[in-house]
Amino acid sequence: MSNTSKRAIVLPTSEEDAAITAAAKADPDAQPLTDAQLAAMVPMRSLRGRPKSENRKLLLSVRYSPEVVEYFKSTGEGWQARMDGVLRDYVAQHSR
Fold this sequence. Notes:
0% strand, 4 helices, mainly alpha
């Protein structure tokens, strides 16, 4: 004898299922998706997080002199991006 308190799942009969389906199809706010809408769907995991950049950056550990870091940090929010910009300019000027 089982000692569970779970209630049994009662599935609708075919007539009840047909009535439920008909009511859902008659609801103007709950219309089935079109083939174009279904084709345009993407998994939720691909929408999470920040958008993927075309110019992907590499994560690495680098040591800079305290003066350099202090200077860039003193320029405020976005200092790492500015530091990257300065280094990009340097590379562009010296790789000709």
